[in-house]
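Appendix C reproduces, verbatim, an entry submitted by the partner laboratory led by Prof. M.T., so that reviewers can inspect both the input and the predicted structure.
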Amino acid sequence: MGGFFRSKKFRIILCVIALLIGMMFYAVFQDGYTLPTTGFLGRVLAPVRSFSNTVSGKVENTLHVFTRNQEYQEENAQLRQRVAELENQLVDYDQTKSDLAVLEDFMGVKVDHEDYVLSDPCNIIGYVENDPFHSFYIDKGSEDGISLYDPIVTADGLVGIISEISQTYATVQTLCSPNLSVGGEVSGSTESGIVEGDVSLAAEYQCRMIFLDKDTKLKKGDLILTSNSVGIFPSGYLIGAVESIQPMESGLSYCAVIEPAVDYENLTMVMAVTDFAGKEQQNEED
């Protein structure tokens, strides 16, 4: 067996293999084609040349696919990054547009109520845990000129009142809370009552106006405004609309279920009324 590796036949086979390998490498660097040969050598090497061209072509295609695949991956990564950037810009644009719309509405509050001293817009930063009456926190406090019991409003209507305060944030108690009582009056009527929250209504973000006479003329859709019976609230600010009329538990009077004007579920920004005309006089009378 060792004599075969030292024989001429083995050396010829090695030369042929080397020739084939050389032709294949040459073909790869020549775009997949070997140079044609003529005469007897050409006929002898024709099958070899065909085989080498096929192999080199497949090698080149494989290298091409691998190279292009890397390019596609890099291009896709760049495109995905660009799409993410554009989506973030779109979110920022939509948020800015929404905030500007809210601020424009707040400017309307100032125009309609020139006597109001309003705080800067306050963002809702969280909700009081396990509170069925939807109290929430705002990102403004005493350092921003807000005080305990300041009314909280939006352009749509009354939201509630400051129930707790620190230097940098405050807690807002909503109209849904039974602990908050607001004097209410019917728009265009002399009827009045007390607006307060109720456990049975809080889940639907509703409140009620109590102490209505049995012969009340209230009907669904009537607007309820703040009255001046409780000095911490400015009078004439919208609370909500009558949803239905129900007898009280005692049966001696009626109450009106109120649908607040404020959409509590989609509330993101509010303002505090830090002062208004007649506030000091009302407080002195109380």
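The first strand starts at residue 117 and ends at 118. Additional entries are available on request from the coordinating office.
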